[in-house]
Amino acid sequence: MELPERGNVVLEIIQFDALPDNRTKVTIHDICPSTAVRDSIINSGMEKGVVDIFNKLDKYFGAK
Predict the structure, then answer these.
(1) What per-residue string of b and e applies to 28-61 under the rule 16 or more CB within 10 Å gives b?
(2) For position 52, what pLDDT does the model report?
């Protein structure tokens, strides 16, 4: 996998919204400087890693 040159910055905005039944919705929005950087992030497998992290958090906090 070819990555873009080093030194690119990605702005990440994380929003937490309260939901009924003591739940929280987390929205993550990444703003990339180019489509090449965006595509590299997507192709890196980052999405699977993020999903794994949230699954572990659900398990840790006893989510159903």
Answers:
(1) eeeebeeeebeebbeeeeeeeeeeeeeeeeeeee
(2) 93
Query: Radius of gyration (Cα) for the chain, nearest Å?
Result: 15
Give the three-state DSSP class for 39: helix
β-pair partners for 17: 25
Q: What six digits make up the tokens of 35?
A: 């489509």
pLDDT in tens, 27-36: 999 999 999 8
Ranges in the chain, pLDDT < 70: 1-5, 63-64
